[in-house]
Write a structure and sequence with these properties.
Length: about 425
């Protein structure tokens, strides 16, 4: 009798073990669903989802286990015999997943959250479906291996820093539907060589192409009305740049540190050039400034060491501080007749400047304006009344050795002026 019971127990135990093993090794897809329709989570084929049972939709979310390899997002998933359609990729879903090499996105995805692929440093190519209409903030930022990106025509809007730090991206076509290029879009894309901007574009925001050091040329659409500060700063391979006729202001530092820039074309529509706009454009040897320009900010041409000559526009009444500071090859400068002030250090260190003619309208020359201009040996003053200067407006060498030509009968006006009297060679014409 006991043997029979033992046999029954053994057989029952074997069945239980067999059932357990079968259950344990069956493939599972997800956790249970909240029957009230509240969102719940699931993991299907290694991809984490947030589920909405009521809407029967799923959102790809960040996984507790870092994603890697080739990611294929399906159009729909099955969870507990229910079908969920994948419609969205959440913010930061794949952020810093450095092992992800490719991502396949289905046509049903209509929204992608900010930084969804940011920092995927092994991702080399991606194609977005036509269902996508917006590229959110930092979507592909720091995807340093990204070479090929296909943007659909459906894209209507781009947010800031979408491709920032994509150092392997060499070329890209912006869809015709995009009218504004946001802040930092291609910042630090050091291998970017070709960009095709749509003809309907109206604005390029600040830092959009900053430090795109391989960019040699770019065509700005004629309808662009604003180009933000530092938009092309550090584009050290850029050789020529034409501002569109729809532009009225050149923003600060817009072409700063573009060391290969040789030609710049400014339209007659420009009325203002902001501070440091062309600073350290060391290959720029001349520039035509249209008479429409009435204001130039401080340091706009500072350290343009190859600049040789420049004619300032007729409407300019003030030369701002540091405007030509460090322009070591500047040989001559023509001042407009209505000029009233030359700012501090405006020409400091212009060691090739040998001669200047100060218009009769000039009222003041600020400190260090011509300091360290040790080859400035001829100063022509057209006004009867000497403009106000300080003890260091000119270099000591200029005070001692320069010939200062003044109007006949005005010598007394200069001799009684404490600072002008320091010039040792005042000559009446």
């Amino acid at each position: 009798m006991n043997n029979c019971l033992d046999n029954i127990n053994v057989k029952g135990l074997e069945k239980w073990i067999l059932s357990f093993c079968l259950f344990a090794f069956l493939p599972f897809h997800a956790s249970a669903i909240d029957v009230k329709g509240k969102k719940n989570s699931a993991v299907v084929d290694g991809i984490s989802y947030q589920l909405n049972a009521k809407k029967e939709t799923a959102i790809v979310v960040k996984s507790p286990d870092i994603y890697s390899g080739d990611i294929v997002i399906p159009e729909k998933i099955e969870v507990d015999s229910l079908t969920f359609y994948v419609e969205e990729i959440a913010a930061s879903a794949f952020e810093k997943a450095t092992g992800v090499t490719s991502i396949s996105i289905p046509k049903g995805i209509s929204k992608i959250g900010p930084r969804a692929f940011s920092g995927c440093s092994s991702l080399t190519a991606i194609e977005l479906p036509k269902s996508i209409e917006e590229l959110p903030t930092e979507l592909f930022s720091e995807c340093s291996s990204l070479v090929d990106v296909t943007l659909p025509k459906s894209i209507r809007k781009m947010s800031n820093d979408v491709f920032k730090g994509c150092k392997s991206l060499a070329e890209i076509v912006i869809p015709a539907s995009i009218t504004s290029l946001p802040h930092g879009t291609f910042e630090e894309c050091s291998n970017l060589r070709e960009v095709e901007l749509p003809t309907g574009m109206t604005s390029i925001a600040s830092n959009a192409f900053e430090n795109c050091s391989s960019l040699e040329q770019i065509v700005i659409p004629t309808g662009v009305k604003s180009i933000g500060s530092e938009a092309f700063m550090g584009c050290s391979s850029l050789r020529e740049f034409t501002f569109p006729s729809s532009l009225s202001k050149i923003s600060n530092s817009v072409l700063k540190n573009c060391s290969s820039l040789e030609e710049v074309h400014l339209p007659n529509s420009v009325s203002e050039i902001a501070s440091e706009a062309f600073r350290s454009c060391s290959s720029l040897d001349s520039l035509y400034l249209p008479n429409s320009v009435v204001k130039i900010g401080s340091g706009a041409f500072r350290d343009c060491s190859n600049m040789r000559h420049l004619t300032l526009p007729n409407g300019l009444v003030s030369i701002s501080s540091d405007l030509f500071r460090g322009c070591t090859n500047l040989e001559n400068i023509a001042f407009p007749n209505g000029l009233k002030q030359i700012g501090s250090s405006a020409f400091e260190g212009c060691t090739s400047l040998a001669k200047i003619t100060l218009p009769s309208s000039l009222k003041e020359i600020d400190g260090s304006a011509f300091d360290k201009c040790n080859n400035l040996m001829t100063v022509n003053v057209l006004g009867a009344t000497p403009p106000k200067i300080s003890s260091n407006s000119f270099s000591k060498t200029t005070f001692r050795e320069a010939a200062v030509h003044i109007r006949k009968g005005t010598l007394g006006n200069f001799q009684i002026n404490k600072q002008w009297a320091k010039f040792l060679d005042l000559i009446e014409r």
